[in-house]
């Protein structure tokens, strides 16, 4: 039987369901006997004693594995474990050995990922299954793999609710199902709607259902209403009784508190919750499928995992192939004195730009610089300062570390495929003529970019199984050295560097043309042997100053216009997630007007015209004509409500919701509109009508956004004058 691998999931203690979609559209289910494994390490005589204790319950085998990456093979005890019992049995083993004699490995390796590793499979692979064996008929490195066989439906519901937020007790009034250009509306009675939904999903042969808030509400709600109406609801391709409890957790990642709900997963059909998937929000279904393939994670899991968990799966797969065991709790102790820490822990190189207007500036970026350095220099937790190469030549500048020459690290092995594919996707997206293909290649490249960025970040993460603090610092040292060498090459070629940021440079040379910048890039690539991209040449670019210290710039906060007409901006309100839509619209309109300027005089003239844009938006707010949707501010709690002392607007909204019976956890987004008079308050968008908002507060926000764009060109006075006139 040949077809595409759609879904896998356990069905019993020792059996896995594999769903394969054939070319004729039929979906076949194969049940395969298989069990996950853990490995126990300890003195051989103690392992023999343990095997005698466990042999009556579990299948055991003594096997040869690498306990450490790069280490020699050792005899360990392999224990086959029923699904869902890994951690319980691992704790029993540790208790038997009094937490002294035994160490356990592969305990937290997700079982379905292990199944994919074991059979060398990946979701959406085109496979042949016969005689209980899988044969892969395509390649995970393919760029133009077929996804046209996947049928995607977007599910939404209308609920009759008198409250601000719907509840499980509210009646379902309508369901809509969008498939390609067709929309199916189901209404009438709840019983009819729910019965028809299952039939339509089957008749249309839907493979992926995309929802908004499906994990946190919609899916449990539909099943609850089915029970109330005594309707058998089946959203997957296999009957099973779903767990309807809604659970979630908050976690801290890259300086932000995030919140995720436990996935409501289907069987034989894929459910993706767009609001519970950062990957889907950033890269769409194309990015989710790409990460699922490359990282060998079931699609429903890949859509909900953090990028770090997806990237870790790449490393686990490489370790699995090499026979390297995964420690349950990595234990690495790093010691540095103050002098060593001061030298090594310096991050990336940043050259501050003067907060002013620059002309004819070229921007050059290294392509995936940090992952490229990790790959090229063999940087991994086990390769830095290894014992086998301690007397070899020092390779890492500044910090004096050395890198293993005898062992190819797990991390460089893992990032090789995403590095290669991302560069190829970027090239294809620039060369291909069809817009829909450009979009697909771009989304896949963006998804892999997240993986590569996280691969560097995880090197220094204390729970990373193949990372170390020294490995993280080594990459930073190499990146600083690379940027310094690049600056030297640019200056020797007659260019002046106006700004540098980690892996990017903004350089200028009087009367330089695009050809001059391209020749410089070729020279850099030839000398450093690293890929560099030319982002383009700016007609003008403005680097913004700090609002706290006007003589100091803010890194990665700028806007400008390239010669081809593209507008590029970073760090301003138009890019901020919490800025209301009215602010973003105003700034983008201003930037569009400014983009027509070719000289400093024209730029100032266009800036004066932008004052009229600001005046129009301000009038709309003052006259109560701004639409509620344009005024919504989105923020999230960074801690529990009870931990806040000061009166903060989004916390006020969270407290209102709590009084209505809705619990808001840290990391959950809160959408509100600023209301009230002198005593500023906030309300949920659903409870506001047009004109019911605090105009002074929104004028203040609008004024700040106008100042961001116009103050560097014409100063503050004219903006303040217009604001005061409108208020009067």
Would you write up a description of this structure?
The chain is α+β, with helices and mostly antiparallel strands and about 725 residues long. It folds into 4 domains: about 1-135, DNA Polymerase, Chain A, domain 1 (2-Layer Sandwich); about 150-320, 2-Layer Sandwich (Nucleotidyltransferase, domain 5), CATH 3.30.420.10; about 345-570, Alpha-Beta Complex (Palm domain of DNA polymerase), CATH 3.90.1600; about 615-725, Topoisomerase I, Chain A, domain 4 (Orthogonal Bundle). It is about 40% helix and about 25% strand. It has 20 helices and 26 strands. It has a 7-stranded antiparallel β-sheet with strand order 17-19-20-18-21-22-23. A hairpin with a 2-residue loop joins strand 8 and strand 9. It is globular, with a radius of gyration of 29 Å. The mean pLDDT is about 90.
In this structure, how is the largest beta sheet organized?
7 strands, antiparallel
**What is the CATH topology descriptor of the largest domain?**
Palm domain of DNA polymerase
**Uncertain spans:** none
**Helical coverage, percent range:** 25-40%
**End-to-end C-alpha gap:** 77 Å
Q: How many strand units?
A: 26
Tally of DSSP helical segments:
20
The count of domains is 4
> Which CATH architecture of the largest domain is right?
Alpha-Beta Complex
- The CATH class label of the largest domain is Alpha Beta
Work out the strand percent: 15-25%
Radius of gyration from CA coordinates: 29 Å
User: Reading side by side through the largest sheet, how are the strands ordered?
Assistant: 17-19-20-18-21-22-23
Structural class: alpha+beta
Mean pLDDT, rounded to whole units? 92
The rough form would be described as: globular
CATH superfamily of the largest domain: B family DNA polymerase, palm domain
